Structure prediction request, 419 residues.
Amino acid sequence: MEEIIRKLKLLQNEYYAKISEAKEILGKNGNSPTWEEGVCWQRAAEICSEIINQTANGTAERWKEKQDKCEERIREIDRAIHADTARRAGAKKDPAGTAASGENAADGETTSFRARGEISDETIRTWFDYPLDHGFDKVAGMEELKKLLTDCVSAAGMNRLNQRLRMSRVRSYFFFGLPGCGKTYIVEAFAYELKKKGYTFMSLTGGQIHSQWQGIAEQTVETAFLMAEEKAPCIIFIDEIESVCRSRTEGNLAAHVQHTTTAFLNAYNRLKKSEKQVIFIGATNYPSLVDAAMMDRVSLIEVGLPDLAALVHKLRIELDDILQLEDGLTYEMLAGKCEGYSYRDVEHMLDVLKNEISHELLVRYDGNDDAAADALESGEYRLTRELFEKALNDPASKPSDKGAVRREIDRWRQEVTQR
Prediction:
């Protein structure tokens, strides 16, 4: 109950902050509606939905009224932007042909003109600029998962066989699991192996798409899938997919969120019908928030907490080139004490450990930076079991509470199994 109350308070604070931000933007733009203001109202409407779904009776009714006011303001802004766009389009058609184009418009013009929904070439280029620098050989542990994905890579290269068997050329995978467990890292390795088969890789995040003004978010989704078709064979990876394909069974879902989900599913269906050689990959920490219609179209891949081999690898790459371990101490021993940690938990713990090492060295060598660094390089100073355990027991190293997310994933997994 305390956790729910704390979360509701945070949501309420965010709601009022977004309303204040929207009013501030409106004032700065001379009371002219812009999509920047609209995005604030969109987020405010989503917050109302979250609060309504966690409260009841009078409280829920009050927040439903607030959500309705948010939705009305969103519609007002949308009408104003469309009217402004139509006016400018008419101006560009004057007989003298002297009207300014969007690029040559006067300085200081409000961004409502940009809200016409065009996705710039620069934005599209960023989708293809994602660096891939490691394959499965750089992923420690996760043997069962790597075997599964290696088979997927092999299957993707069997073009004649797949065609003979009339198998769909569009393949879809959905990675889910607790936060900080390496989903993105394993997806990157998967994509790296596929690139060696001639695939192009493009990457977007659901958060980036979702944070845009209504209409633009939908067009971004549609453009992304069209680009995947055009660049085939292609991999399209969307992280935080729950932001763009939200479950429509949620109560009081904001209108623009529903529209984005519908656009996403329509774009995906068109991709499937295109029969282009495209691999779709989605990832999320919260699979229960993703629309069931999408979940029925993908292969589900769970990424769990790192096993012992993965933890050993993580600790080794973080520490092996900066210090030595005391005699008798091994990375396997250190990893064994990190059971139940995510990669993110390990990184937080290592930050604490490095601060402890720095403090101990500076005390030992009277604040002499060179002497302290030399002691690390030469092996004169080594990591002890006692210091590692001290860092591990520091409150700042405490693993994140995964209970709520784990329970939600378990509940969702059970529902999927029973379908």
About this structure: The CA atoms of residues 141 and 310 lie 5 Å apart. The longest helix spans residues 57-91.
